[in-house]
Amino acid sequence: MELEAQWWTGQLAADIHQALRYKELKLPSYKGQSPQLHLRRYFADLIAIVSNRFRLCPAARHLAVYLLDLFMDRYDISVQQLHVVALSCLLLASKFEEKEDSVPKLEQLNSLGCMTNMNLVLTKQNLLHMELLLLETFQWNLCLPTAAHFIDYYLSIAVHETDLHDGWPMVCLEKTKLYMAKYADYFLEVSLQDHAFLNYAPSLVATACVASSRIILRLSPTWPTRLHHLTAYSWDFLVPCIERLLIAHDNDVKEANKQKGQHAQSAQHTVFQSPAPTPQQASVQQHIPQYLQAHQPSLHYHHQTSEQQNCQQILSANHTASYPLQTCPAALQSSVQARGHGQTGAAMSLAVPLEVKPCISVSYNRSYQVNGRYSCVTPCFER
Predict the structure, then answer these.
(1) 170, 161 in Cβ contact below 8 A?
(2) Are 79 and 39 in contact (CB under 8 A)?
(3) Is 154 helix (H, G, I), strand (E, B) or coil?
(4) What are the pLDDT digits (tens) for 323-354?
(5) Which residue from 102, 31, 17 is spatially nearest to 70, judged by alpha carbons?
(6) How far, in Å, are 187, 251, 257 from residue 299 at the CA level?
(7) 343: left (phi over 0), alpha (psi -120 to 50) or beta
(8) pTM for this model (two decimals)
(9) pLDDT tens-digit profile of 105-131?
């Protein structure tokens, strides 16, 4: 632990972080214009499931999804080909980020359930062709920073012994760091599920994951000076991305509580019949994340309706006054790109440019409180 702490505070880690921050300024632009954009969530989840199946690192998973997003943004691809593209992106990312022994083999990929359901069989020649096409598209440059490349560096100082939990000193620093890492990993996966996060710089998304975790864990100050200096992001600049992450967390908590309510209702009907849980109830419990089961439905957030809602940021005065906006790239836009829906192409077209299609933009309520008084109950600590 001491050696790891020395590594993160050393000059080499700082130089690597600076190099990644420089590279992210030159990332390819994402327009969100794929005709198959409505299928994006499915293939992002597919990559996540396969990467978890082979225990790939988060950097490989995030790089694979990012490669898929950029490739879909440029070409009109059939649904069947998208499966090959998604797995090829995962293979390239794993070869770039993982050891050779951890890279999935062709036989293992063909044994996946999604391949058998689609009646797809990958061949060595098809994978090589697709990998070459991907590499040529990205000009053989796979050094594309993602939020997963920044998160560990920021987590190294995300929790400090001087932080307070609910205004009280922390009883166990190591336990707090453990929960911080779990929540940061959760928010990092949330950012993979929505292409709107591609409108933020990867370092900003990673920073927002840390800030959101501090809000959920009710640590104060919400955005300490040390994190402001390390990330070079002010609180004001983080708020739009934090709001998105907290809204997703809110929805996950409510969905988990809904499933728990259904489980309790089902158990009440069968209490006089059999004390043992039914397979359906056991399945529900298995699919509820443990870090969400403990929460209570006390989230003060009014969901958006079908009509456009008025947005108003409620920010703490001490955050606004303490951290002026600085060192933030001007080209980074926090506005949400429009979603696009189009017809699925019958074949892959590699030469015809796509046009941005007007559609409904994703809206979110700015009245979500991110001022350090987020009311989600987190019974993780004891005074």
Answers:
(1) yes
(2) yes
(3) helix
(4) 333 333 333 333 333 333 333 333 333 333 33
(5) 31
(6) 17, 10, 12
(7) beta
(8) 0.68
(9) 888 888 877 777 777 788 888 889 999
